[in-house]
Structure formats: C-alpha cells, structure tokens
Amino acid sequence: MLASAAAIAAAEPNGDADAPRSGTTTTPIKHLIVVIGENRSFDHIFGVYKPRDGQRIANLLSRGIVNENGQPGPNFPVAAQFTVLP
Fold first, then answer.
1. Positive or negative, the Cα torsion across 53, 59, 64, 68?
2. What is the mean pLDDT of residues 56-82?
3. pTM of the predicted model, to two decimals?
C-alpha cells in the first residue's frame, strides 16, 4: 500500500502527490478503500514499520519485542499474555 502511494507520487510530473490529477486512469478504479478491523490491526500492519528520520512510533519493532525480520526480539517476554488456569 505504501509502495503504491510512492509510485503515484513518483508518477506525478511535479512529484507532488497532493496535486490535482488529470482524472484518467489505466483501469476504471479511481479509489481504494481499505477496511481494517480493530484491536490487533495496528500491530499486524505497522508492527515492524520504521518511521522516517525525525519521526518515531511505538510499535513492536521500536520496543524490541520483535526484530526487523519478525523473529522474537530481546524484549519478547514483555509481550507475554497471562492466562488463568482452572
């Protein structure tokens, strides 16, 4: 999804993704709406997102819960869930 936005921005003659477009598309699709469920969705989508320089985000990667490749990180035990045994 982010790559698609970058491709659109790169296709603009002046490089401005917010600039008005001509209205012509390769396909009849002009808009894409993505519906994301609640609760775990942020971690599923942005869990290993790396922000740009000067920006920060609190996600699984920044907290060391997972490594960049998705494997358990040094702080993985912090994410342990508690269960009650009968």
1. negative
2. 90
3. 0.48
